Amino acid sequence: MYIQIVLYLFIKGVIMNNKWFLLVLISVLFTFVFTTCEDKKDTTPPELTIVSPTSGSTVGEIVQIKVQTTDESGILKVDFYIQNSMVLSDTTLPYEYEWNTTTNQDGEYKVKVVSFDTEENFVESEVSVTVDNESKKPTKPTLNKISYDFGNSVFKITWEQNTDDDFKSYTLYESESDDMSGKSEKFSTTDISVMNYDVSSDKELYRYYQLVVEDKWGLTNVSDVRKGSSWVVFSIMFGGDESDEGNSVQQTTDGGYIVLGTTRSYGNGESDILLVKIDNVGNEEWRKTFGGINRDEGNSVQQTTDGGYIISGTTFVKQFNPDLWLIKTDSNGEEEWNKTFGGNRGDYGGSVQQTSDGGYIFIGSFFSVEKNQDIWLIKTDSNGEEEWNKIFGQEGNFEMGYSVQETSDGGFILLGEDFDTKSMVYLIKTDSQGNLMWENNGNEGYPYGFQQTTDGGYIISVWEHPIYELIKTDSYGIEEWNKTFGGSLGDVGLSVQQTTDGGYIITGYIGTNGSSDVWLIKTNSQGTEEWNKTYGGGDSDGGHSVQQTSDGGFVIIGKTFSFGNGDYDIWLIKTDSQGNTVDIN
Fold first, then answer.
1. Beta strands at 386-392 and 398-406: parallel, antiparallel or unpaired
2. Are 498 and 459 a contacting pair, CB within 8 Å?
3. 513 pLDDT band (50/70/90 cuts)?
4. Residue pair 538/513 in contact by the 8 Å Cβ criterion
């Protein structure tokens, strides 16, 4: 009706040709139209719901932020915010945002969504969530013990298979440091079933390895660092139900080891000499026993120039009257001949060495008719037949002969003990025929190992309770310096050898509370300690002999009660150049 009236007046104004009337009419019509349009404008905001995640929830990895929003006039856009920073403006259905939380630190976050309709009306909705990616990391990988394949010169690295549904890759890293600094990538794979890799490596070094597992969201987890050693190191025990102990070890020309000991577990009698051949990585190749129905004891062994072995010891041919005993074997430990030396008085064997003429020099103790004990030196030919023998000792004293070596001048140096009212180190030098050149018994203590040094002097291992002493002499046995080691628990060094760097390596016993462990000490050329290592379980373990090996490491022979089969067992330990070996448990 209102429109009809306005139209009637408009026509009448035209007929009357009244322009002022028409202007007023047009103004009224415009006001009507404008007012009518104002009444119909949309001012209602959209409806908005955040479907996921729910407020208070814990999220991680990839989170789908989903919303439901509607409006009669239509939705123009939906804006997504994380911590008030817009991350997406979405203009098409479905209105969603894929939030990769792996780029955020764990903690509480506000998720806000703003929906706009086509009339630019808008509404906000907000939820709070906790990001926790630490618990969503891949399962921590486990590297197994790393072995070294000496035949192929590779570290063999294995690990446990990952079981996560979102697995992406394994990556193996190598470093020269245990903190994995300067690491390099050695291997990577996306195959979850792969659980090993071989890393080519030179011998006589250490490398450190770590495995990283990554999931498809970019989260990672790392294994512990594992050390791989391409040194030959091992720790082996052998023996039976009764007492066995190792007394002498030498590296053989094939890189393996020959071990001499005394066994009560094997053989024919109360105790027998035990000879064991070990390969270069610690596997037993063969073993032999020597002895009768009574007691027999092994003292020292040396590989001979024909590839066989010469053994010295003591045999109780008669139950209470021991004799010195020499045994020669072939390269497989089969006896070629044996010789005994002694009478009816009780004589004990010490060490033996092959001489430059192919014969043997043998030291022991000789019990005289006067009931004194003297040092006995015997020289034989290559078949063990005696060429000459010599007796040394102070009148009325009690002496024991322990060790003999051929010296650089073709003579011999003898180490023994001289006892009158106290024990003294007894050093004797002879010519090539065993004639006395000089003797020295000026140092108090119980002597054990010794060796001629490269400067023509001698290094001697001495126990002077409760400490251990290392004595260096000149070529005449005059002391140049001495060093003491150990504390109040009766520590002792039983064997000493000069090393290729001019220093010394010593093995023996280090006291623990009421017992002992194997003790290994490395010194410089002046006897100052560079490092020391102990091995054992604190239950009567000890080292009897040590030798530097061709790779610069060390091999120790001794005995263990801590890890034995019920009594003492022979214990052979191979270390690297710093005294490190395999885990002992």
1. unpaired
2. yes
3. confident
4. yes
3-state secondary structure of 103: helix
Please state the pTM of the whole predicted model.
0.74
Q: Is residue 540 within 8 Å of residue 515, measured between CB atoms? A: yes
The rounded distance, in Å, linking the Cα atoms of 524 and 528 is: 5
Residues 552-576 have a mean pLDDT of 93
- Calpha distance 457→477 (Å, rounded): 7
Look up residue 190 and give its amino acid: T
**What is the mean pLDDT of the segment spanning 448-469?**
91
Fold type of domain 47-131: Immunoglobulin-like (2.60.40)
Q: Do domains 147-229 and 448-585 have the same CATH topology?
A: no
CATH match of 448-585 with 2.120.10.30: yes
Which one is predicted more confidently, 188 or 367? 188
How do strand 58-59 and strand 122-131 relate by DSSP bridges? parallel
Pull the structure tokens for residue 7: 């139209």
> Cα–Cα distance between 296 and 264 in angstroms, integer?
10
Report how far residue 314's alpha carbon sits from residue 99's, in angstroms, rounded to the nearest whole number. Answer: 83
What residue segments make up the domains of the chain, in order of their start? 2-39, 47-131, 147-229, 448-585
Give the residue, 225 or 147, on which the prediction is more confident.
225
